[in-house]
Write a structure and sequence with these properties.
- The protein is an alpha/beta fold.
- It contains 23 helices and 16 strands.
- Strands 8-9-11-12-13-14-15-16 form an 8-stranded mixed beta barrel, surrounded by 6 helices.
- The protein is rod-shaped, with a radius of gyration of 62 Å.
- The mean pLDDT is 87.
- Bound molecules: ligand C2E and magnesium ion.
C-alpha cells in the first residue's frame, strides 16, 4: 500500500521534472537555432564581401595602362585601388575584424597586404614607367596570393562556426526528443500504474464483498445446528407470503425446548447443544418429507421455527402438521450426550392471505408457544387474538413491578391459620398483594412468576418480610407469622444477616416467625442456610407439599418444623380415598420426624371434618378466611385486642 502510494506520487513528480527540463532545453534549442541562422547569414555576407575583395580589376587596369599608356586606364586603376583600400579598411572592423582576431595569422596577412598597398600607391602614379608597372604587378600578385589565403581561412572559419552551431542545435534537438520520449514514458507509466491500482482496488472490493457475504452467511447460520437463524427465517416467510396464492395456507410453527431443557435439569450447555443439534436433524428429516415450500430455522431462544406452505386439498392442515411434529418427540431422542425424552411446547399460527404481515405471523406463532409454555401444556397450541392482550398485560405488569415494589404498591395481606379442632386462630401467612392503578388487583399467581423471572422477587420478598414483621405486632403475641421465601433470595443475599437485622429493627421475636419455602429446586444447596436460620430460632416450613411432583424425599431431606399440605389435597381428601391414604401416610411420617402439619385450601366444613378425622390439627382456607389487611384480621378475630390497641393509642 505504501509502495503503491509512492508510485502514484513519483510519476507526477517525474512528469513535472521532465516538463521543466523540456522547457529549459527548448530555450537552448531556440538559441542554437538562432546561432545556426546567424552563422550561415554571416558566412553568406562574408563570402559576398570576399568576392568583392579582389586585386584582379586593379591588375587588369595596371597591365593595360603599362601597355596602352592611356589616362583612362590609369584613372581606372586608381579607382580600383581606391575601392580595394576602402574594402581593406572595413576588414579591420566588424565581423571580418572578429574573424581576423580569431586567427593571428590572418591579422599579419592583412598587415602585409596593407604594407603592399602602401608601397603600391605611389607606383600607380607612375604607370608610364615599365619598372613601376612591373613592380605594381608583382605587388598586386603578392596581395592576390595573400588575399586568397585569407579568403580560404575566413571561409573555413565561417564554415566551422556554422558547423559548431549546427552540432549544438542537433545535440539539443536530440535532448529534446529524448525528454519528450521520457515524458511520454512517464505519462504512460503513470497511466499504467493508475490502471493497475484500479484493477487492484476492484479486486480488493470484490474480495471484501465476498468476505462480507461469507460473514453475513456465518452470522445468518446457527453455529449449533447449522440452520438459518431468525433473520433468514423472516426473509423466507416474507418470500412465501408474497408468493401465496388462493387455496394455499402459510403456517409458522414455534417449537420451544427451553422449558423442556430447564425442567429436566440434566443439561449443561454441551448437553443442551447436543439436544438442539439432534432435534434439528430430526426435524430436518421430517420437514423434507412434507410437500410444498418449507423452511426450518433456529429460533431466538432454545427452539426452532418451521414454515410450511400447503395447498387446501390434499395438503395437511396446520393443526395436523403441529401434531405430527409433536409426535416426533414421543420417542426418546438420541444425542451425542445420551438419549433423552424431550417434550417441547409448540405454538403455531397460519394465514391464507398475503396481506398478513410476515413478522406478525411469526410473532403470533411465538405467542402461541409462549402460551403453551406459560400454561405448562406440552402440546400444540394455536394462536388466539386474546394472547396478544395477555402479552400486553404481562408486559405492563413486568414494566410496572419494580416501581410498585419501590413505592409500596405491593404489600402483605394476611391469611389466618387455625387449629381445626379448637377453631382458634394461631397464626397468619403473609401473602403479597398488588393494587395497580389501571389493572386493579393483580394476583400473586400472576406477578410472582414474573418477579421470579425478572429477579424482582428478591426485593419484593424482603419488602413483604419486613412489612409483615412490623404489622403482625398489632396482633396478640401468641400469633405466629408465616412468610414465603423465594429460592432466589438464598442465592442473592446474606440471608441470615439480613433476617437478623430485620428482626432487630422490627422487634419481632425470631420464635414467632416461620419461613415457607417450596420443595422444588436444589434443596441441598440451601440446607446449610436453613440450618443457620433455625439456629436463630426461626421456624422453617415446607410449602405446597404434594403439589406437582414434589418428591417424598423432601420430607427427610431437612428437619422441617412444619409441612404445609398443598390445597389440592383438601378437595381430593373428600372424594378420593387414595388421597386420604397418602395424607394419612404423610401425617404419620411428619409425626415420626417431629414436624407439625398444616393443610391449605380448606373451603368447606366437609373438607375440614374429613381432615380432622384423618388427624390434621392445623389448617387455613377460605372456610376460615382469605388473605386480608392486618386491620381486618384484628377486627374480625381480635375485636377486643383492637379496641385495647385503639384505647392505648388515643391515651
Ligand atoms: P402459597 O404460599 O401456597 O399461598 C397460598 C395461596 O393459596 C394464596 O394464593 C392464597 O390466597 C391461596 N388460598 C388460601 N386459601 C385458599 C382456599 O381456601 N382455596 C384456594 N383455592 N386458595 C386459597 P395467593 O395469595 O394467590 O399466592 C399464591 C402464591 O404466591 C403463594 O402460594 C406463594 O407461593 C406465592 N406468594 C405470595 N406472596 C408471596 C411472597 O410474598 N413471597 C413469595 N416468595 N411468594 C409469595
Ligand atoms: Mg405459602
Amino acid at each position: 500500500m505504501r509502495s503503491d502510494r509512492q508510485f502514484r506520487s513519483v510519476f507526477p513528480v517525474l512528469c513535472c521534472l521532465v516538463l521543466v527540463l523540456l522547457a529549459v532545453n527548448g530555450r537552448y534549442v531556440h538559441q542554437a537555432d538562432i546561432r545556426v541562422r546567424e552563422a550561415s547569414l554571416f558566412e553568406t555576407a562574408l563570402l559576398a564581401q570576399i568576392v568583392h575583395f579582389s586585386t584582379s580589376d586593379l591588375e587588369k587596369y595596371v597591365a593595360r595602362s603599362g601597355v596602352l599608356k592611356t589616362e583612362a586606364d590609369r584613372l581606372a586603376a586608381e579607382q580600383a585601388f581606391q575601392n580595394l583600400s576602402e574594402t581593406l579598411k572595413t576588414w579591420r572592423q566588424g565581423d571580418i575584424r572578429a574573424l581576423s582576431g580569431i586567427s593571428g595569422q590572418t591579422g599579419s596577412q592583412l598587415d602585409s597586404i596593407q604594407q603592399d598597398s602602401r608601397e603600391l600607391a605611389p607606383l600607380l602614379n607612375d604607370l608610364h614607367n615599365t619598372a613601376s608597372v612591373t613592380r605594381a604587378l608583382v605587388l598586386l600578385q603578392d596581395m592576390e596570393r595573400i588575399l586568397d589565403q585569407i579568403k580560404e581561412a575566413v571561409a573555413g572559419e565561417a564554415a566551422e562556426q556554422t558547423a559548431t552551431a549546427k552540432q549544438d542545435l542537433i545535440f539539443h534537438q536530440k535532448i529534446h526528443t529524448a525528454l519528450i520520449f521520457a515524458l511520454i514514458l512517464a505519462g504512460l507509466g503513470w497511466v499504467f500504474t493508475l490502471k493497475k491500482r484500479n484493477s487492484a482496488l476492484k479486486k480488493a472490493r470484490g474480495a471484501t464483498l465476498e468476505q462480507l457475504a461469507r460473514l453475513t452467511g456465518r452470522l445468518d447460520c446457527d453455529r449449533v445446528t447449522g440452520l438459518g437463524n431468525y433473520r433468514v427465517f423472516t426473509d423466507r416467510v416474507t418470500q412465501a407470503s408474497n408468493a401465496l396464492t388462493a387455496g394455499q395456507t402459510l403456517s409458522v410453527f414455534c417449537v420451544d425446548l427451553e422449558t423442556a431443557l430447564l425442567t429436566s435439569g440434566n443439561f449443561d450447555l454441551r448437553g443442551e447443544n447436543a439436544v438442539l443439534a439432534s432435534t434439528a436433524e430430526m426435524l430436518r428429516n421430517s420437514i423434507e418429507l412434507l410437500e410444498g415450500t418449507t423452511c426450518l430455522a433456529r429460533s431466538r431462544g432454545k427452539g426452532f421455527l418451521i414454515m410450511t406452505v400447503t395447498d387446501d386439498a390434499p395438503g395437511l392442515s396446520a393443526q395436523e402438521i403441529a401434531h405430527r411434529i409433536l409426535a416426533l418427540f414421543l420417542r426418546p431422542l438420541s444425542t451425542g450426550k445420551g438419549t433423552f425424552l424431550i417434550t417441547p411446547a409448540i405454538g403455531y399460527a397460519e394465514t391464507r392471505t398475503s396481506e398478513q404481515d410476515p413478522a406478525e405471523l411469526i410473532c403470533n406463532g411465538e405467542l402461541a408457544a409462549a402460551d403453551a409454555v406459560a400454561n405448562g401444556s406440552r402440546h400444540a397450541v394455536t394462536f388466539q387474538p386474546a394472547m396478544r392482550t395477555e402479552v400486553a398485560r404481562r408486559a405492563t405488569v413486568e414494566n410496572a413491578l419494580a416501581q410498585a415494589i419501590e413505592t409500596n404498591e405491593c404489600l402483605p395481606y394476611f391469611q389466618p391459620q387455625f387449629n381445626l379442632k379448637t377453631g382458634r386462630i394461631h397464626g397468619v401467612e403473609a401473602l403479597a398483594r398488588w393494587y395497580h392503578s389501571d389493572l386493579g388487583w393483580i394476583s400473586p399467581s400472576e406477578f410472582i412468576p414474573i418477579a421470579e423471572k425478572t429477579g424482582d422477587i428478591v426485593s419484593l420478598g424482603w419488602k413483604i418480610l419486613e412489612t409483615s414483621c412490623a404489622e403482625v405486632q398489632l396482633l396478640p403475641n401468641a400469633l405466629t407469622l408465616s412468610v414465603n421465601l423465594s429460592v432466589a433470595q438464598f442465592h442473592n443475599d446474606d440471608i441470615v444477616a439480613m433476617l437478623e437485622d430485620c428482626l432487630q429493627r422490627t422487634g419481632l421475636p425470631a420464635t414467632r416467625l416461620k419461613l415457607e419455602i417450596t420443595g422444588t429446586g436444589d434443596l441441598q444447596h440451601i440446607q446449610d442456610v436453613l440450618t443457620e436460620l433455625r439456629a436463630l430460632g426461626v421456624r422453617i416450613s415446607l410449602d405446597n407439599f404434594g403439589f406437582g411432583n414434589s418428591p417424598l424425599c423432601c420430607l427427610t431431606d431437612f428437619q422441617w418444623d412444619e409441612i404445609k399440605i398443598d390445597r389440592s389435597f383438601s378437595g381430593r381428601a373428600v372424594s378420593d380415598p387414595k388421597s386420604r391414604h397418602i395424607l394419612k401416610l404423610v401425617l404419620d411420617v411428619a409425626e415420626t420426624l417431629g414436624s407439625e402439619v398444616l393443610v391449605e385450601g380448606i373451603e368447606t366444613v366437609e373438607q375440614r371434618d374429613v381432615l380432622v378425622d384423618l388427624g390434621c390439627v392445623n389448617g387455613q382456607g377460605y372456610l376460615f378466611g382469605g388473605p386480608m389487611a392486618i386491620d381486618d384480621v384484628t377486627t374480625l378475630f381480635f375485636p377486643q385486642h383492637s379496641q385495647h390497641c385503639r384505647a392505648e393509642t388515643s391515651a
